[in-house]
Each structure stands twice: as C-alpha cells, then as structure tokens.
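Notes continue from the previous slide.

Worked example: a multi-chain complex. Inputs as given:
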Amino acid sequence: MNNNRQEFLKRWKETIDIPPQTIGPFTPIYKEVTKRLKVMPLPMVVAVSVAIVGLVVYLFGSSITKLVSLLQRGF
Amino acid sequence: MSDHMIIAFYACVRTLIGIVTRPYETYRHVINDGSYWELVPLTVIIGSYLGVASLVKTAAFRPYMLTKQFMVLTFAVLITFGLVVGLLWFIGKLIGGKGTIRGVILGWAYTLIPTVCWFYITSLLYVLIPPPRTNSPLGILFSALFLLFSSILFFWKVMLTYLTVRFGLKLDLPRISIIFFVVIPMVVFYGIGMYRLGIFKIPFI
C-alpha cells in the first residue's frame, strides 16, 4: 500500500515537474498527435516519411538520384 | 567501478529499446534518473562508427593515416557535442530553463543514436553500392528507399531532440521553438565550417 502511494507520488511529481503544453486553439490537435508519438511512434513516423518521399519522387522524378548520390558521400 | 559499468550497460540497452518503443517515458526517466556512466557504452558505439568511417574515408590500411583520420573525426564529434549541449544549455537558461546540465548531456547523447545509425549505414552503403546513383528503375528505387530511411531517422532525431529540451530544460513549446530558431542557424553555419575543413560533409549532430 505504502509502495503504491510512493509510486503514485513519484508519478505525480514527474507530471507536474514540467509546464503543460498549450498552443491556443491548436492544443487538441497537438495533444492528439503527441499521444500517438509517445508510445511506439514508428508506424506514424514511417507513414509520414512515406508520404513525404512519395511527394518528393512525384515532384522531382529521377532527379532524386542526384540528391541521394550527394547524401551518400555525406558521411 | 565494474558494478557501475554493468548497471550503465543494462540501463543503456534498456534506454536504446525505450527510445524506439516508448520515447516519451524513456526520456523522462533518463533525464531524471540517468547517470554519466551511461555515456560509456554510447561512446563505444560512436567510437566504433568513427573507426569504420576512418577506414572507409582513408581507403588504405596505413596506421598513420587511419589514426590521424580517427583523431580528426573524434575531435570533431567531441567539439560538436560540446557546442550543441552548450548552446542548448546557455540559451535554455536565458529563456528560463530549469533543468540540469546532466539531463541535457544525457538527453543529447541519446539523440546521437539515430545519427550514428544514419552515418553507419550510409558508410556501409558507400562501400557496398558506391554512388553515383543512375536513373535506371533500380537506381530510382534505391534512391527512394534511401530517402525513406533517412527521413525516418531524421524524424526520430527531431523527436528525441525535442524531448531533450522538453525534459532537460523543462520548457514549454513556445520556448522550445525559440531555442530551435536560435540554435539551428548556428549549427548550419558550423556545418558549413566542417564541410569547408573537409571533416564532415553532413555534420555529425
């Protein structure tokens, strides 16, 4: 019982330790997006990346090979 | 000391899994309770990459050249690390950040994991499938996959950087945006400097 209380107090302290995020009228959207990023964000990151790369390929076509050639020499 | 090392190694492995599966909770834990010992396994990971990069860049088994290249890359990475942590800490404090320098150092050190992944795989691909890419269907497919992989690691990096500032300096979104607006141009100029010196074409950030 005492351990549960201590655990709860620790969690509570962690939660109030940082200021809450509010961005005016966009706060609900922000909360919805971050909720998906807090646990296992990989599917969302992959989906966004696929969309961006798809758009880049659509817009620039085979020119992306030049960009990739540059990036490959970038290390 | 060996106890510290074992605990740090275990904590590091747990964090490496955590930053993929539960980054928010993991970063909160690392920044509040992490120890400097966790930097040791991270240094080994980054050091191993620098060894591989030295081999690929030198392209010759000449000890003097390899050691020189390794030392140059190591100093560049250390200076970049210090610069970014210093900038985040200094600007964060200026705008009312309340965290600890230990939190920022540990948080930023773990953001180097996506960076190392990108540099490692790019170096290996440079050896296995050297550029330039052609306009053939296979060339375009490889390019699209490479961009996809780079984009995923980039967003992962951005997320971890945000969490470093959020938990390390205990700031809200507007102040985090201010830090990014100030730090990013400085880092871009620094990256150009590194490029001109021929150390990293893309800065190891």
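Summary box: The radius of gyration of chain B is 18 Å. Chain B touches chain A through 46 residues (CB under 8 Å).
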